[in-house]
């Protein structure tokens, strides 16, 4: 058996990179709560999946399709570190911490699942609506706590312990793993059988 790297195919690498960037962007912007942004990106992510699988799968010979299953897992999994880590990273850069008091709790009915709750906050005279994330529940009325608010107003607020270096690292790790996987697909040698003449000579 001989080992040679597959020929360099920049178009397929570019297509794979752009395709996997779509679910990453979807996860990142999911923390904005803006349905008009999230839904089109979600549909675009589903449309990008076959292009990603095709570009990665066709980069190597037919007998070297080991990467298809991890490619699918990484594509789908890109949403979660981008959503959790990206939210924290954004608020690390553009957030400010306010001390707030819960003035009121509102219940939001849903016909598709369980009801959700939000809290009306008074943050030193500044009024905010806070939606708990990551399975957290709203705090009782008159509870005082800190909230990290996006100065740009684009992303939703988080509690301080949800904005940390390890949350930020989660986002960066997701990007690194995707980049490393595409690199390995292009760089790892392909096993090829020796010519019949060469095998007899040995």
From TrEMBL:
Superkingdom of the source species: Bacteria
Transmembrane regions listed in the UniProt entry: 12-29, 35-54, 66-84, 165-190
Keywords: Membrane, Transmembrane, Transmembrane helix
Keyword Membrane: yes
Name of the molecule in the record: Uncharacterized protein
Lineage: Bacteria, Bacillati, Actinomycetota, Actinomycetes, Pseudonocardiales
